[in-house]
């Protein structure tokens, strides 16, 4: 498999793009003409620079408005093509992409276009150049790869072939299986892009909202299965026009791109087994059973406060680490680790952010397979020196400097007995059973990257994006979960620093966990037990409960209890959801306690604006009452 990426996908100067693309592990590059024209180097020097970086110049693009023109425009179009061939020969590139004409004077007619391409094929052949024809979804006469293929077929020239671009096919909802009828050797190049399901003008959608395979909602895997079934063995290349990518970090975008291709082709290899020899072999997306532990870095006063909070929440200290300043607290299946080490990862996390979730442990099918797959997808394994008697638990760097550890049924499952001395501090518990979800806050621009990280590594599915209204701006939220809901993450992308999520980012050091939701089977019993232990819930507005009475049929005595305990409520056709929030702690972290009834699979999004407003009352400067 040879992978490529169009320069238009990456931000920066051509030089920065080349460096990032090479570092991410691509084999080649599509030169988007604008990037080349803006560069001050000669075509020869640019070509040499790209090859020195270990990359092939796979494609030169786009050439516009070639076919179907009346003379004298037709002759001019051929001359224009010859000038581009000159540049390509200097660059050392033998394939040009011609996109279907949008020219108002283009006449249409399959045979006329075929004749133009046959003529161009002759001229290209004289220079050992090949021409690839791509149907733009908004092309004037040709906007469907099936018509583009018919033109290529009738042009009947060895130097004229087809370029397929998943966006143009899938955005028009053309059945990708129609690709299976095209001979693989007549497909000269394949471009991949995904996109979010938004109903909008095709050209605008394509130029601003494309994203990496797996980041959007288009059936890119089915498209690629069809391509591989033809026997196509040319480059697989990303061509993503995206407003955020244009302003993002070249390294991150290139790395995400490579990750998306590796994950996609792994999927294709498994579903289209006879095709794609030479595709990388890697372990399948990892099954996450549940959250094994959540680890906080905390020291001094902050550590004492966190211990008090856990105690109030009914956790008991179940163990102390044999050689490190690390405690294990438990309730139900929830394990919270408090790490007060001044060195190593927890020490650096504390130095950078203060109290923070520095590590998440997951119970997985195979810890080794998890790290193998993560590494193949470009994640970095994480290690630090082991203390006496410590187990080598496999780990990787997550995003934003975080760490994830993986525990499976092997020897690693004994970590709690092996590394910790058990403590006999007892607590009755308040009915918390497990981690329901972990909520991570990041900038809006980082959301696609984080979502791809989780969905490519783990067997997890994305829920649709929801808009959360903060009094000071919009926060976009997307949940990602295992198919059975045993492990759930919510990604919250802040667009401004004035939102609750945005100010968390400003105070911290980039994206990280902002809240953790713990599950109970009986939120009213838990609320009572918590109150007895001195827990203070987040106070909500009385208007919220009045509105609940209007929206739902809740028995008056139940509603009165919700009002008294500050319990939020949501319901859909699958079930019900009840939520109780803590007040902020350690700056802007908070906890949520939830009860899911029936098959409710959401996160109480309709309640978010009222919860956020309540939280912000705790942040407002003097003079603004909290309640
Ligand atoms: O938006 C465009 O014009 C454009 C240009 C070249 C392509 O390959 C493409 O898919 C779109
Ligand atoms: Mg394209």
TrEMBL record:
Pfam families, sorted: AP_endonuc_2, Glyoxalase_5
Binding residues annotated for Mg(2+), in chain numbering: 437, 515, 592
PROSITE patterns the UniProt entry points to: VOC
An individual GO BP term: 3,4-dihydroxybenzoate biosynthetic process
Enzyme type, top EC level: lyase
Cofactor(s) the protein requires to work: a divalent metal cation
UniProt feature coiled coil, ranges: none
Annotated a divalent metal cation binding sites: 134, 165, 191, 239
Biochemical pathway: Aromatic compound metabolism; 3,4-dihydroxybenzoate biosynthesis
PANTHER family: HYDROXYPYRUVATE ISOMERASE (PTHR12110), XYLOSE ISOMERASE-LIKE TIM BARREL DOMAIN-CONTAINING PROTEIN (PTHR12110:SF21)
Name of the protein described by the UniProt record: 3-dehydroshikimate dehydratase
Native source organism of the sequence: Thalassococcus profundi
């Amino acid at each position: 498999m040879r992978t490529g990426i169009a320069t238009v996908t990456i931000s920066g100067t051509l030089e920065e793009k080349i460096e990032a693309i090479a570092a991410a592990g691509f084999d080649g590059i599509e030169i988007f003409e604008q990037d080349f024209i803006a560069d001050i180097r000669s075509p020869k020097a640019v070509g040499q620079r790209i090859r020195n970086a270990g990359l092939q110049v796979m494609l030169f693009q786009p050439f516009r408005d070639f076919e179907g023109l009346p003379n004298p425009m037709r002759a001019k179009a051929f001359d224009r093509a010859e000038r581009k061939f000159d540049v390509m020969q200097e660059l050392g590139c033998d394939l040009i992409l011609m996109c279907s004409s949008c020219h108002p004077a283009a006449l249409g007619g399959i045979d006329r276009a075929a004749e133009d391409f046959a003529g161009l094929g002759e001229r290209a052949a004289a220079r050992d150049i090949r021409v690839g024809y791509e149907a733009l979804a908004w092309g004037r006469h040709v906007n469907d790869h099936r018509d583009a293929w018919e033109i290529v077929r009738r042009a009947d020239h060895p130097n004229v072939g087809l370029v397929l671009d998943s966006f143009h096919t899938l955005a028009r909802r053309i059945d990708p299986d129609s690709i299976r009828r095209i001979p693989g050797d007549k497909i000269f190049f394949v471009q991949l892009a995904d996109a979010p399901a938004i109903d909008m003008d095709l050209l605008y959608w394509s130029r601003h909202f494309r994203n990496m395979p797996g980041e959007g909602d288009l059936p890119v895997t089915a498209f690629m299965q069809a391509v591989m079934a033809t026997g196509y063995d040319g480059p697989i290349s990303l061509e993503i026009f995206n407003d955020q990518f244009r302003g993002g970090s070249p390294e991150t975008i290139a790395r995400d791109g490579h990750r998306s291709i590796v994950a996609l082709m792994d999927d294709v290899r498994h579903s289209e087994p006879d095709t794609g020899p030479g595709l990388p072999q890697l372990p399948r997306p990892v099954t996450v059973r549940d959250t094994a532990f959540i680890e906080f870095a905390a020291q001094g006063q902050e550590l004492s406060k966190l211990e008090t909070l856990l105690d109030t929440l009914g956790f008991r200290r179940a163990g102390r680490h044999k050689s490190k300043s690390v405690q294990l607290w438990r309730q139900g299946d929830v394990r919270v680790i408090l790490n007060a080490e001044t060195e190593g990862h927890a020490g650096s996390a504390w130095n950078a952010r203060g109290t923070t979730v520095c590590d998440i442990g997951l119970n997985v099918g195979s810890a080794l397979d998890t790290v193998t797959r993560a590494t193949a997808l470009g994640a970095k394994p994480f290690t630090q020196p082991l203390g006496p008697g410590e187990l080598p638990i496999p780990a990787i760097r997550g995003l934003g400097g975080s760490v994830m550890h993986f525990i499976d049924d092997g020897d690693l499952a004994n970590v709690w007995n092996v590394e910790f001395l058990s403590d006999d501090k007892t607590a009755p518990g308040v009915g918390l059973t497990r981690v329901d979800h972990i909520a991570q806050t990041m900038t809006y621009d980082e959301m696609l990257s984080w979502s791809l990280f989780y969905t490519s590594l783990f067997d997890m599915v994305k829920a649709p994006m929801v808009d959360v209204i903060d009094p000071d701006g919009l926060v976009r939220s997307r949940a990602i979960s295992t198919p059975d809901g045993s492990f759930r993450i919510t990604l919250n992308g802040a667009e401004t620093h004035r939102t609750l999520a945005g100010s968390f980012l400003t105070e911290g050091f980039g994206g990280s966990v902002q809240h953790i939701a713990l599950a109970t089977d009986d939120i009213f019993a838990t609320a009572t037990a918590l109150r007895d232990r001195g827990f203070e819930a987040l106070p909500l507005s009385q208007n919220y409960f009045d509105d609940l009475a209007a929206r739902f049929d809740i028995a008056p005595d139940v509603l009165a209890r919700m009002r008294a305990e500050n319990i939020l409520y949501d319901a859909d056709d699958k079930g019900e959801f009840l939520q109780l929030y803590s007040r902020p702690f350690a700056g802007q972290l908070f906890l949520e306690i939830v009860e899911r009834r029936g098959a409710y699979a959401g996160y109480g999004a309709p309640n978010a604006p009222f919860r956020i407003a309540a939280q912000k009352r705790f942040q407002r400067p003097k003079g603004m009452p909290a309640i």
